[in-house]
User: Fold these one by one.
Assistant:
Number 1:
Amino acid sequence: MSELKKPLIMGILNVTPDSFFDGGKYTNLPAAIARAEQMLAEGADILDIGGESTRPGALTVESAEETKRIIPVIKEIKKRRRDAVISVDTYHYETALAALDEGASIINDISGLKDLRLADLAAKYKAKLVIMHIKGMPDTMQSFCDYKDIFKDISDFFEQKTALALQRGVSRENIILDIGLGFAKTREQNWLLLENISHFTKSGFPLLIGASRKSFTDKSLETSLKCAQTAARQGAAYLRVHDVKETLAALEAIYAK
């Protein structure tokens, strides 16, 4: 068995009033920048900045409002830390375009390429593209938790979506897959998928796992850290987390020699 590589840590920065865990904490620019600086100091490899809540039942936000929330934060971070790696958490073409123009280099698309123009942007800017599995959208997704075979259904979804991304010119090495824990999955399905992440690493594409503080973890730090360890042991390449310092400490138990 080949030696596991430590996953990159994607620190979550939600500049939203209604996100499921940290909504309202970072809606003003000074608070958002302070949080970004904190996560970078704690060891985050990437900052994932989102301007729309995607919790179950969340209502959509127009791209103009989302862009208004996100872009000042990206500008200020890049002004202070030109080397900071920025991911934009959006499924809106206009928001992604504005973010890439300001220095973001990853599009984190929770919609699973519902808008193929996001693949065009990733190709044009040579940006990484996260393709997440979902059925429906956040306001409806929990009505779509029925699967004939959840592993095959998600694998088939990824096969179709990665083929589309490649056809639009996205480099293979720039595609990242996310199984979408908490998105159109029951509590039991989330745990089943988490315990079998290695099934999806066989695709050859790097896997991003976002379990941090989600409902199926009861928003617990301890459970979120155990999820991070479980994902890392199975070869996840990226962990999307709220608690950067604590996650890195939890991973030391796996990678310490």
Number 2:
Amino acid sequence: MDLLISERIKKYRKDKEMTQDALAQALSVSPQSVSKWECGDGYPDITLLPAIANFFEVTIDELIGNDEISAKEDVQKNFFNVINTLSPNDQLELAIQYNKKYPRNWHIATSLMHRITRYRGNNEDEYRKLLVNIGERILKDCTDSTMRRSAVTAMCMVCDEEEIQSWLNRDTTFWYEGRPEIYEKRYKLSGEEEKYWMIRNAGNFLRTSAMIGRMREHKSYIGKPEDSVEWNTMYLNILTGITQNSIPDGWIPEYTMQYIRLSAAYFGLGDKESGYSHLEKALELCKRWQEFPENALLDLGNPLFFGETKLIKNDWLIQLPNGEKLPLLQGFKNSIANLASIMQAEKGWEWFNSVRTEERWSAILSEAKSLTIL
């Protein structure tokens, strides 16, 4: 590693308000020797280091710039404050230099990995061994989740495509919702536009379904009926916006459950017509769902946003246009609610109690019972 001893001797001498001649005399060396040390033209003899350190009342590590404070100053001043002002090639060279100098500085290590993935050009094979070495060290010794995630991301940019999943599996912070982004970045970097947009569209759906799943969990579902109507109406409006005022086949389970919840809330308010209207909508969607065979590929609508991504009925997978399958996130409904079971439930659906003996209710329940729920 580079020694900072020339800078340190000069600094400590000036702190003591001494001339080079005075320091030379105190250390019993020639003024020319002190001048060479401070200019970086040479280092003091190793046997002199204890005497110089004792004279300045510092440790030898501090004298040569090997202490923690010195290292931090060096990294900040000569690496992070400089690197973004350099050309891509010079950035790579500086990052390699400082990674060798501070091999356990994970910020430098991940910075080097990032630059290799961006600027490697035609020299990928030259850097692959270095990348693997850094990635392995970070995953073995670094506990910082951000650094680990950065290392895995970098490796996924340059490894063979069949190795991506194995790298992603090395770090538990990569749950399924984060994985499409890795492929997006990889295909963007490699210029594979068709693959990039295919995985981006699938990622749009997965991120949207994650948001939908989080929104569904709200205290208004079990609160006052007026709060439930307000919340579920907002939720339904969001669904309608996402699916462009239609109900694509793949979204039927989501809409069905919303209609059931709104039906219960309206019955709780005493608005029977709205309650029955939403319950009948849920029944019609259940019938529509029953028409699809098991594992059918279902359209998700909004091709500008989701592309040709399909939902596989009753399976925790979506399918991309090239036939590849990705896991569906927890939270998105991919199977239909058992309407008959919900209508007959005694607990959790008490707002239905006011209409359970009515003829219109019984007719809907009878049809719901006739359905084969898959």
Number 3:
Amino acid sequence: MDQRKTGNFLKDLRKKKGLTQEQLAEKFNVSSRTVSRWETGNNMPDLSILIEIADFYDVDIREIIDGERKSENMDNETKNTLKKVAEYSDAEKKILKKRLISMTLGTMILLLFALALEATSGFGFIPEKPCQNMSDFATGLAFGGLLMNMLYLNGSLEKIRAWKLDKLKASK
């Protein structure tokens, strides 16, 4: 796929409709900078937006990806499949977002707990040494949670899991 060719095709389609980048950006709820990146070939639209763009310009997704008009029309089955893939991708993003929010909230609660223990250690509610130990433990858990969050975000956990599965298969 030639992203520059695709970008030029998107630009031509927009100009044929008589729209500015800002107007198109407003239509698809993205920034005008994002539209500019599509049209220069620096970035490509997400699959869900790509389907909307194809409908908006009344072209096939294959035409957008190839960067040129084709004489054949995309059959409905292919279009429906792509819509399902886009919906699946959106659902996965929502699940990821929920997980990240949960992990972040858990980490924040642990940090608040550690701070509360630190603050109460001088008042004698809990003996100072156990209070310090609990605070250190909660802080360690919180930083462990932050580390797990980072590994999860950059995909390292998935790579570690795949590596472990490969090692298990190799040992059998």
Number 4:
Amino acid sequence: MIYEVTVKPNSKKGPLVVANGNKLTVYLREKPIEGEANTALIKILSKHFRVAKSCIIIKSGARGRKKLLEVIS
């Protein structure tokens, strides 16, 4: 399944996942430095979807706030 994800790094709300169909908004406490936010994103979504971290792949947008993610179940 492919999801459009909007990431809000350095947020005081985090960690939080807000779902709206195939669009997700994820609030993270981590800063977008040296891939910390992407690592936290994968960890949070693996718990949200109850899959292994290796089942979540960032298809595009690894350096931006808007990402396309594939979740393999």
